[in-house]
Each structure stands twice: as structure tokens, then as C-alpha cells.
Amino acid sequence: xxxxxxxxxxxxxxxxxxxxxxxxxxxxxxxxxxxxxxxxxxxxxxxxxxxxxxxxxxxxxxxxxxxxxxxxxxxxxxxxxxxxxxxxxxxxxxxxxxxxx
Length: 101
Description:
The chain is mostly helical. It has one domain (2-100). The protein is built from three helices and no strands. The chain has helices at 2-32, 42-61, 73-100. Helix 1 packs across helix 2, helix 1 packs antiparallel against helix 3 (73-100) and helix 2 crosses helix 3.
């Protein structure tokens, strides 16, 4: 049973790292929105391609996020990432530790 426990812990830790990486991508995208970056820059295009589907989904679910010229979609996404990291990932890790007993 320890093999399944270790697998769940590994998956949870990988998910935590990927969520942290995506959090930084969202932060960088939000900071880029304050300046006028070159839309043909490959890095800018990558950031927009990776984040825009999630931003569009949040804007569709919460139409008030683009209120007053300020886009609150990055803030909602960051809060969602924090929730997933603190609840889902930690629950998986604790479940795996209890499974190994």
C-alpha cells in the first residue's frame, strides 16, 4: 500500500509545482497588461496563449471582473490557485499519509 501512497504524494507535489508555475505565469501576464508589450514577441505570445483560455473562462463566469477598465480575472485565478494548493493538494498528501498507515 505504500506504493500507492508514494504515488499519490508524488502526483500532489507535481501538481503543486505546476500550479506555482502557472501562478507566476498569471502574475507576469498581469504585469505585462500594465505596459504595451510587442504582440509579436514569442514570449508575450506564449504568455497570452497559455493564460487567455483561463482568463476568458473566468470573464464569462464572472462578467463583473472587467469592471471599470480593471481586469480582476488574474486575481480570481490566483485565489483559485491558492485554494487548490492549500486544500486539494494538502488533502491528497494527508490522504496518502493516512493510506500508508
